[in-house]
Amino acid sequence: MTGPAPQDQLRSALRYDSTVPRATVHRAAIAEVFLTDARPVPDQPETYEVAAQLPRAHIMGEQSENHDFLLLVEVLRQGGLFLAHIYEKVGLDEAFIFRDLQIQMLDLSAVRTGNRPARVVCSFAVIPQRKRNGRVQAIDFSGVLTVEGKDALRFSGGLAFFNRKVYDALRVRRRASLAGVLGMLPVHVAADPAAVGRRHAYNVVITQPVVTGPSTLTATVLSDTSHPHLFDHQLDHIPGNLLMEAARQLAAASVSSLHSISAHGLRVTALDVRFQEFAELDLRAEARARVEQFRLDESLGTLVVPVTVDIVQQDSIAASFRLEVAQ
Predict the structure, then answer these.
(1) Burial 258-284 (b: 16+ CB within 10 A, else e)
(2) Rounded to whole angstroms, how far apart are CA atoms 230 and 241?
(3) What is the rounded CA–CA span in Å between residue 324 and residue 203?
């Protein structure tokens, strides 16, 4: 009788009985920590497996039949940060920015919720970028995320790290460039949850989209700093996960409006995002979407709709997205 393969032994060794320290993934609430373990892959330099648990119920999940896309992204964000701090020796007091992220869904059935919290394994190949003194200033990463043993998505992305002095200088320079236009924002009315593919009003992060041209819609991004997931801790800018959610909601609303289908059934199957500037909390952020033509995603066996979304402040693009959504 043969024993388990080395890969099976590695995966079985990953633990799910407690979360990693919250500081290692930049979270304030223990309930917002999804990572439970990580370990290097033998004989593969800078390659790791990261374990995480996806909850059955979460404020962003809204008791959906599928694990929320934003929570899958959060697992990747936490994984990259944890590996940088624990294995690449980036200081816990350093700030970070998400430079870019690419995701391609491999199996939509893999992200369906079950009758227990889902066990996730992410394989990470990490490429650190170092200064002359050896300090890691950024990492690039890529890999595959599996849920309960099924390959769910392929991903790649990058994080950059800054000591507090450098980060503060970046923020001062950015704020100074916007002097005279920052200030209190008017109160906006959030979109109808159903129009943006949400069930609960507290998860809506854009205003009702307005048609601004052929296949183009625009909305204002809303930042509720009391939201327990999107603002788990105090921030001096609009976080990347909120911008991702704004892009997703506008994409769903735009496809729904132009093709007369329910926004509720639309799921993100691909994402490519580049973060270019800090998005300021006290400056209007406009999300601008352009919907392209249906195409067949042969790997998933379904029709998808590509949508590009730009987040704009003062005529400058803070983040640019290309998403694909499908029913």
Answers:
(1) beeeebbebbbbbbbbebebbbbbebe
(2) 7
(3) 21
What is the phi/psi pair of residue 268, to 5°? Answer: -75, 125
How many Å apart are CA 97 and CA 273, to the nearest integer? 13
DSSP 8-state assignment for residue 186: P
Q: What is the DSSP letter of 203?
A: G
Tokens describing residue 203: 């998860």
d(CA 12, CA 94): 32
3-state percent breakdown (helix, strand, coil) of the chain, nearest 5: 25, 35, 40
pLDDT band at residue 134 using 50, 70 and 90 as cut-offs: confident
Whether the full predicted model's pTM is greater than 0.90, yes or no, is yes
pLDDT tier for residue 285 given thresholds of 50, 70 and 90 = very high
Token digits for 254? 């735009």
pLDDT average, residue stretch 35-54:
96
CA separation (Å) from 175 to 241, 274, 290? 21, 21, 29
Cα–Cα dist 319/99, whole Å:
10
| Tokens read off for 223 | 């930042």
| Per-residue model confidence (pLDDT) at position 11 | 47
Per-residue pLDDT, averaged over 289-300, amounts to 94
Alpha carbon distance 240, 224 (integer Å)? 14
- Rounded CA-CA distance 243/29 in Å is 21
Count, in order, helices (H) and strands (E) of the chain.
4, 13
